[in-house]
Amino acid sequence: MNNDFAIETVNLTKIYGSGNTEVVAMRDATVKIRRGEVVALLGPSGSGKSTFLTAIGLINPPSAGRILIGGELVMNGPKALKDSRAFRRQHIGFVFQKSNLIPFLSAIENVQIALEINNWAVAASRRRAMSLLEYLGVGDRADHSPTKLSGGQQQRVAVARAMANRPSIILADEPTAALDGRRGRQVMELFGKVAHEHGTSVVVVTHDHRALDVFDAVYEMEDGIIRRGETGTFR
Amino acid sequence: MNLAIKDIRHNIGRFALTTVGVGMLLMVVMGMGGIYRGIIEDATLLVDEIGTDLWIVQRNTRGPFAEVSRVPANLVHRALAAPGVESAREFVYHTIQREREGKLIRIAVVGLSWPTDKGEALPLVAGRPLAQNHFEMIADDRLGLKLGEQIRLGKERYTVVGITENMIGSSGDGLAFFTVSDALDIQFDVPGEAVRLERQARYARGTLSELGRKQPALTETAFLKASEIPAIGPRQISAVMITVLPGTSVRTVASTLGGWSDVSVYTTTGQRELLLKGPVEKVRRQIGLFRVLLTIIAGIIMALILYTLTLDKLHDIALLKLIGAPNRRILGMILQQAVLLGVVGFGIAFLLGLKVFPRFPRRVILTNDDLLQLAAIVLMISVLSSVLGIWKAMRVEPNEALAG
Fold this sequence. Notes:
The structure holds two protein chains of two kinds.
Chain A: E1 5-16, E2 23-34, E3 38-42, H1 49-56, E4 64-69, E5 72-76, E6 79-80, H2 84-91, E7 92-95, H3 107-116, H4 122-135, H5 151-163, E8 169-173, H6 181-198, E9 201-205, E10 217-222, E11 225-228
Parallel strand pairs in A: 3-9, 3-10, 7-8, 8-9
Antiparallel strand pairs in A: 1-2, 1-4, 4-5, 5-6, 10-11
Helix pairs in contact in A: 3-4, 3-5, 5-6
Chain B: H1 3-10, H2 12-50, E1 54-58, H3 75-80, E2 85-100, E3 103-112, E4 124-127, E5 136-140, E6 150-153, E7 156-164, E8 174-179, H4 180-187, H5 192-208, H6 210-214, H7 216-219, E9 239-244, H8 250-258, E10 263-267, H9 268-277, H10 281-312, H11 314-322, H12 327-356, H13 368-395
Parallel strand pairs in B: 3-8, 5-7
Antiparallel strand pairs in B: 1-9, 1-10, 2-3, 2-9, 4-7, 5-8, 6-7
Helix pairs in contact in B: 1-12, 2-9, 2-10, 2-12, 2-13, 10-13, 12-13
């Protein structure tokens, strides 16, 4: 993927329902996110943030518009031009509001599984998972079940899983919503660290205005329309 | 990483309880198969064990195992005179029910042709064959009689001199072997008062008859023993067993004997078929159908269990899809759990069955063929029953992982 932009969206539009029940959740969203950039997406509930995030995550196809990832056209209107699941596996990492770790796997196994489904050998995947957990400061909790981890530790494990396959993009949906202010900030700073050290672009949907200084760019959404905030305002 | 095993280990209590439940259900299916097999084995056991070539029974009856059959005892001598017959033995078979130590005991009485047959061929587990013409018996252990124990049947007491194992009649009652004369004594035992009343009635009939009026002295014979009155025939036996001479065609001898107008002749195979098509046919079919029904029910229950287990994991499955797990990985997890549930359930069923089935009142026979067949069915059910769960899992959208 040789392109300056990790993500490009062109006139993305998402319409739910039809006729009298038609709702336009996202209208003509055009965004360019550079490699290694940490971007916040702000907006009130129902503004279309999650619709945008799931569209660029190749989970919820748009009704119209195009999505390019690493300069490669992957979605043209509702039509996926790639095997979405395989593409996600290799290029996109996800972090959610709740940590969404698989409860029957330990912390390290939650990271390992993302590698194994991408055809990593067991021993190599375990080494990589362990190094990621150590990088994110939860190496000592590797063999613990998710229920034995604090909210912050769970989010770190989720970030490790998202980073596992060295994706070009990490998409995070309200990753600090379940955390207190201090831990929330730690997670946001972690995204900044990951983006700047690994060249991964991170898009974070958030309501949390306290840690906006971490981001390189901020986009705001309202009534399905996305606009870029003033660059550098928050740095 | 094996997700199926990881999930099971995480929910080991639930999985253990589920497999025990499935195991008990499969034990019932296995037991039904065993009962079905037991009924067939029990029904044909005596015919198989006695080892004779031909059965001569009362004309137009299906033999002593299917219905009452009466043939004269001297039929043995007639049969012996027939070409190709090596030996002919009397056979008596009937069922009695008595009370012993406050409990009812049902005995399938078999008369052996003394002295040619003393029960040497029986599978004795204790004691010895019959050594005298009267008052000895060989009992199956199902009857609960002990070696040396005496039991009163009719007017006589019989001593248990031998014990067999798993010698059961077609009705499931334990067999007891006596000499033919003792078996007939037990069968035709009547109280003294009944004998006296019968003699009085016989006398009354005599005095009213033409012959009695012309020769009054004849009526005095009414008070003699039945065996001393020529007009009254000897007690009849159930059948005559024939062994043909080596090198002689059983079919030919059967054809010769079958030509006699007062009897019917069956080969051992024929008698066996009659047993399976006769008294045990309905039970056999009922158990067989019930077994099929139980297998279907087991399949439905296993499908519901696996479906529920899958429903519990839908969020995790959506998450796996979201992070890019291929369908085969998710499908494999459900399928492996289904097969594991079936295999462990089958193992539990087998082990429980080994402990429980011997306590059943009737024999439950688990043959290797039946067990293998059931194992294959369980495997098939496991795979089929996972289809519902797999179908549900395949329909889950990855964005469902984002909800909640």
